[in-house]
Amino acid sequence: MLSLNWNLLFTIINLIVLYLLMKKFLIGPVTGIMEKRKALIEDGLANADKANKDAQKMKQQYEDSLQNARQESERIMTTAKAEAKNEYNRIVEEAGEKAGKLLSGAQATIEAERAQTVKELQTEIAGLAMTAAKKIVNESGNDAVYDLFLSDVNAGDSTKSNGLEGDGSEDSDHR
Amino acid sequence: MEELNCETVFKIPLFGGIGVSESTVVTWIIIAALTILSIIFVRNLKVENPGKIQLALESLFGWLQDFFDGIMGENGRRYVPYMITVILYIAVANLIGLLGFKPPTKDMNVTAGLAIMSIVLVEFAAIRARGTKGWLKKFMEPMAVVLPINILELFTRPLSLCMRLFGNVLGSFVIMELIKMLVPLLVPIPFNCYFDIFDGLIQAYVFVFLTALYVGEAVE
């Protein structure tokens, strides 16, 4: 029991054999499978991380493009508004001009017509007056009319000679 | 007293007969049993959807690896398989008394062999980690005066390992035999639980714990 003998050596050999057997049949496979699982999990985590990052990137891109589109639409809207306003202004101005032109044209026409009418009327009135005068002359006899006419002329002459005292001689020379 | 003796089972007819003792034969049985069980348990390991046996095995291994990693650190990782082997062997050897065998650890040849292997491993690890020069220099640290003590430690460490295991197992074995002689019925059960199971596992734990501690110190 307390003596050391060959069995010490046997024990050491046994231990080494047991170590090799355990390493081959127990520790190796179990550690291997645990390592494999660890690698698998790490792989999965890395993959998930990558996918997450990709999704984030895609979201960023999407947001960027959305932002761009919004800006673009805003820009288009502003341009369209400005153009529409310009067009509106132009049309209104044109319409105003046209209306003004039409108005002035109409006024000129009206003026011309009025003048025409006045002239016609004057002619008519003169005609009427002549007729009236003829009628009067015929009725009251020529002598009286001549007298009247002459008296009228004289009166007018005297006033005229009064007004043109300075060059009366010249006048007579001309005549 | 015949229970205390380690009987010689047979003799190898060499050098005038080498006696192969009971402890060696039981160790062979243990080796065979452990190998066969390993093959059975490891047969269908799966990376995904592990079975209950695999889960138990893996959690046991995870615990053992964490335990030894914590003691020996990064540099001692290569010695973990040996530690696992030794703790398995000592645990089974201490518990095999339950099956009616004589525990091999009751034979001092076995514990001495284990202790010699431990100290060889410790010194090997030290040489590997520091080189021969560094290993020799370590004997004079922290100062030259402690040189004899450090050299003495080369022998006291395995001796204490060997004797602790041997004494504990032998002591519990003797007490169990005495109790069995006095009251053969029922009474031995709680004592059996304590001396064979609890003490056996504690001694296995202590042995590998100390060995790992020495290795960790050597490779540090």
Automatic annotation (TrEMBL), chain A:
The keyword Membrane applies. SUPFAM superfamilies: F1F0 ATP synthase subunit B, membrane domain. It is found in: Cell membrane; Endomembrane system. GO terms for molecular function: proton-transporting ATP synthase activity, rotational mechanism; proton-transporting ATPase activity, rotational mechanism. It comes from the Bacteria. Gene3D superfamilies: 6.10.250.1580. Residues 154-175 are annotated as: Disordered. Its main location: membrane. This is ATP synthase subunit b. The lineage of its organism: Bacteria, Bacillati, Bacillota, Clostridia, Lachnospirales. The gene is atpF.
Automatic annotation (TrEMBL), chain B:
Signal peptide: none annotated. It is a multi-pass membrane protein. InterPro entries: ATP_syn_F0_a_bact/chloroplast, ATP_synth_F0_asu, F0_ATP_A_sf. GO terms for cellular component: plasma membrane; proton-transporting ATP synthase complex. The keyword Transferase does not apply. The chain crosses the membrane at residues 25-42, 79-102, 108-127, 165-187, 194-215. Keywords: ATP synthesis, Cell membrane, CF(0), Hydrogen ion transport, Ion transport, Membrane, Transmembrane, Transmembrane helix, Transport. Its main location: membrane. It is found in: Cell membrane; Membrane. Belongs to the ATPase A chain family. This is ATP synthase subunit a. It comes from Hespellia stercorisuis DSM 15480. The gene is atpB.
